Input
Amino acid sequence: MVASINYFYLLFFFCLLSKGNCECSMNDIEISQSTTGREVNGKQEWRATIRNKCVCSQYSVKFDCNGFNTVEKVDESILMVAGSVCLVNNGQPIFNSSPISFTYAWDNAFPFSPLFSQVACS
Output
């Protein structure tokens, strides 16, 4: 009986330990923006940088892009707009050590917010 209880606690400990290494969510996706100092068709150019603050990679990252406008073409492999949702990095992983940036031009910075992501932790 004591061996069964010890086994249970050991198993429980390892479950907590492994889960603790990857408590990631889309809330770990950070978007920072700054002006570049350039103007495109009379609109201010913005550089948006997307960072994954989690040690695990995140893929299939989608942003709420409802109302997003730009007069500058955005590389669709970085940000593909489909209606009110934007797919980031063609759905490929965003790694902790590799931020992704793109530029767009509009009057004000757009308030991008994460809608969805998948976490891949190994």
